[in-house]
Amino acid sequence: MQSENTRTGAGAGAGADTGTALEWSLRPARPEDVTAVAELKAVVMRDDLTRLGRYDEVRVRQRLRDEFRPEHTWLIELAGGFAGSVAFGPHPPAAGHHLEHFYLAREAQGRGLGTAVLRGLLDRADAERVPVRLTVLRGSAARRLYERMGFTVESEDPIDIRMVRAVPEVREPGR
């Protein structure tokens, strides 16, 4: 992935609130970004974690801090401001990439930004010919986005749904 990637508009739903194209970019995370990402996670995950009986003010932030890998994390900026984060990197022991810590600030949701960011990451995985895996909370609205982008359920438990997006088939010309 490029160290900085600026994109404009394009994706389905882009600019839906304003009728204008979204201008967004990704910038590599730095170790000091962990606090902002942990706070964003605590805000956007609160409703789903509360519904599942799993919300804990301290634990939600600490878990992000424990898992934060700046070398595989990007901050999503919208109109120059912090709008979210996404981590995308190797998925040992399985082949492919793992998508995690994909959070958008509430004011950035519903505008096509999540679709646009995810499409760029999936294009990278497709070019590398590798699958992508992720975990989403049961009942999360994000699951619809992942299903639209080709993810299917691999396994589930009462809290988490593990999903995978297989490598798309390569079609030979004329077939």
Structure keywords:
single chain; 175 residues; alpha+beta; eight-stranded mixed beta sheet; 4 helices; 30% helix; disordered N terminus
Total beta strand runs: 8
Report the β-strand fraction as a percent range. Answer: 25-35%
Q: What pattern of helices and strands is seen along the backbone?
A: EEHHEEEHEHEE
What would the average pLDDT be, to the nearest integer?
87
Biggest beta sheet summary: 8 strands, mixed
- Morphology call: globular
> What is the helix content?
25-40%
Helix count equals 4
The rounded distance between the terminal residues' Cα atoms is 31 Å
**Side-by-side strand order of the widest sheet:** 1-2-3-4-5-6-8-7
What Rg is obtained from the alpha carbons, in whole angstroms? 16 Å
List unreliable stretches of 5+ residues. Answer: 1-19
Backbone structural class: alpha+beta
